[in-house]
Structure formats: C-alpha cells, structure tokens
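Team,

Forwarding the record for the chain on the shared tracking sheet. I've put the sequence and predicted structure together so nobody has to dig through attachments.
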Amino acid sequence: MRSIYYLFTRFYVAILFVLLEIFALSLVFKSHKYQEVRFLNTSGNFTGTVLEYVNGINTFIHSGKNNEILLEENTQLKKLIAYQNQYPSDSSLPRNSSTYHFDYIPAKIVNNTISKSINYITIDKGSKDGIQKGLGVVSSNGVVGIVTNVSENFSLIMSVVSVKSLIGVRHKNTNALGNLRWNGEDPYTLQIDGLSKTLPIKKNDTILTAGFSSIFPPNIVVATVKNLEADESTSFYNMNVRLTNNINTLSYVYVVKNEKKKELDSLQMQMINE
C-alpha cells in the first residue's frame, strides 16, 4: 500500500491529466458520433500501418536467410544442369519393364586401348558414383564392355574387343541365341558362335543383346552380320559381324545398373549349385 501511495503522490499530476483527457474524449464521442467513428478509423489505420511496418521489418530480417536458401538451391540447380550437359543423354536406352529396372550412369572415357589382345577402357566414375564390378557398359550405338575394376573415382572396363570377352546375343529376325566373342585379329570385326546353320541368316542382319543376363538390357543393338558360311565340321555358322559401336572413337559411355541384379544372380547361382 505504501508503494502505491508513494507512486500516486509523486505522479498525481500526470495521472490526473490522463484521467481528465479520457473524460474529455468520452464527452466528445457521446455528443458527436462523427468524431467517434473518425477516431476509431484513424486508430485502425494507424494500427494497420504499424502492423504492416512490423511485417516489413520481419520480412527484411528473414529475407537474408531466404536469399541464402534460394542462392544455394540455384547453385545446386546450376550444378545439376552442368552435370547433365556434360554427358549426352540418350532416350533410346531401355529403362523399365516388369522384369528389369535399369539406371544409366553417364561417364567420360579418359583412356582407351584397342591394339592389345585384352583391351581396357578407363572412365571418370568410380565407387563413389555407384559403379560396381560386373556392371555392363553401353553407348548410344551399342555394347561397350563390362566393368572389371573399380576405384573411388575411376573404373576399368574390359572392352568387347578382348579375347576374354563373351556376351550373350540373339539374331533379331529368328531370336536364335549365340555368343559374341573376338578372335584377337581385326578389332572392327567380331565373331558369333552357336547360331545353327539351318537358320535363315543373311548379310547385314541385326544382332541384339539377348537380355537373359542381369548385365545388359535386352534388345540393345550390338552388331550387323558382315559375312557367314556354314561350318562343314559342325552344325553352326562361322559368322563375322561388325560392331555398331566404333570402340576406338568413343568419348562417352553409360554404365548399366540393374537394381535387381543381385537377386537374379543369387537365384541363378542356386540353380547352378543344385
């Protein structure tokens, strides 16, 4: 009580002034409706202006942070566009089906050999990019090879132009299955084994990937028939084919990642071990 009394005695003049002002305003509003409405409108406008100003301050305070977020997003988008533009895209590559789900990791060739019995291609993508040993590699023109070694930033591909390479293929017109291999002689001419000489195969016929392994998608063009003759000692053709890829002039490739590869390989191994 003493503190309230002390406060009143010290500031009684100011308190009295405020009370008299309130009383005078109430008399004015009671006798003049216009002044009441005018006052309320004015106070409302004042309040709105204050709120707008406060909101502007908040916007200004947070705009710096928002601009930083937008700048970061813009930077990431530019990086993504630059990354995509670095490697040519190819919509013709097989993607999804009820059996397979393929992803393609684009890569640039940094080294390539073609004059050896086993030829390798080095690319600028490695384990940090999702590359694994045993993945297939293609280009927009056909099959390239299979990944044999992987480091963090690079991968080594054994080219189809290698005497150790063996890839399952099929003749487009008859669906007959065979194996693509290289005899180590002409790097632009490969051979196909296992196609019966009773099949109606002719020059320039198309050879595709068989699609029965987890490495390559089906129906990728591999080669065209260059020449063939019936082998008198066997039931098969001796067949030479031209690759649709020019391995020597490749600049970019796509590493094929089959998300169901592990499951398919495991199932096939069970069948082999039975």
